[in-house]
Give the backbone structure.
Amino acid sequence: MQSITILGATGSIGVSTLDVIARHPDRYTVYALSAHSRVDELAAQCRQFQPKVAVVGSADAADQLAALLRAMNLDTQVAWGEQALCDIASAGEVDGVMAAIVGAAGLAPTLAAARAGKKVMLANKEALVMSGQLFMDAVAASGATLLPIDSEHNAIFQCLPADYRRVPAAAGVTKILLTASGGPFLKRAVETLDTVTPAEACKHPKWVMGPKISVDSATMMNKGLEVIEAHWLFGAPAAQIEVVIHPQSVIHSMVSYADGSVIAELGNPDMRTPIANALAYPERIASGVAQLDLTQVGTLQFEKPDFKRFPCLALAYDALQAGGTAPALLNAANEVAVQAFLDERIGFRQIDRVIAGVMDALPHGPASSIEAVMAQDAAARAAAERAIAALGHPLKAANA
Ligand SMILES: NC(=O)c1ccc[n+]([C@@H]2O[C@H](COP(=O)([O-])OP(=O)(O)OC[C@H]3O[C@@H](n4cnc5c(N)ncnc54)[C@H](OP(=O)(O)O)[C@@H]3O)[C@@H](O)[C@H]2O)c1
């Protein structure tokens, strides 16, 4: 029986994780669940899974949750804040941690799980993008098991030899091919992108996801963050990580080998597959995902990404090449710009302009400590907010 903490239980990945866990009560118990502010959803999850601890983002939310749990006669302990998240990620009773908080807020608890030597199931790509080498060092020092949840990285993980040690040449790996659906704006006329709405940007053609990653998919920053994530997970330089547009999202990624072989992982686009893969690794368990019928899919298409249409992808490659704290700057500026777009304070095409402006304006330095990374994160957030305040929304400006 494995005892699991889910960080970000009320989100898209959290809900899918609980769906898989509910199918296997003989294998998994839930030690702790966390949410930020969606207290009602978390209370309902507590009723079903009866965790020992539930963590939320504020004292008010904790009071509300405690009242709901009392009314349900549940003895789940309620806590709030970052230290409480770190505690449920590193508690002695915990075997595995699903790291599914969105954004930089997930860094501290995900790192706490890594430092405590847990099985870390990593959905929160932003944590690895920000802290890169520091995170991988923590995993190595504690002997934690790091399992990727992003469907692309989970696919690559499955396509690599079981004893892969983050050295591509030693395993005959020549390239990592990250597939990308291209998002909702793959074919939309570029000159109309200034006026797309948050609802349009969040309507992903293949995946159902939270709002931030949905906008990241529309700008392809998501793929850019994944390039950086792949670099750290698999030890490949930027030049060996190639993005391939594959609109059907049936192939979740591929690995090219020196002998000309290309190994791919295929399946229906449903995050329960990589989640089940990580929960049960190295075994295989049912996930609830329907078996892939290739005769129904019919055609698989591939094309090169257009870096002019998707400047965020180029910005991410630049940040990876620059190294140090550059990916943390990129990530922070992106989080602020995406939130501003979702709040309708800037237009879609201004997201990449805000990020590029921050990357140009702020010098990056060595990522020598988590404190150095967090200082750059804070500086980039402030610079991005200043840039957003100066820009204004293109539609609102036109209508003024
Ligand atoms: N969704 C996917 O298919 C998918 C695929 C690959 C990778 N990922 C990655 O997985 C992570 C989660 O994505 P998602 O789509 O599941 O996001 P989501 O649906 O927006 O859920 C985010 C979760 O994090 C919590 N949260 C939000 N802000 C927080 C904060 N400041 N402090 C603590 N908790 C906070 C939310 O709580 P509330 O509900 O209370 O707001 C929710 O439980 C992201 O890093 C994303 O890139 C997602």
About this structure: The chain is about 50% helix and 15% strand. The chain has a mean pLDDT of 96. The radius of gyration is 21 Å.
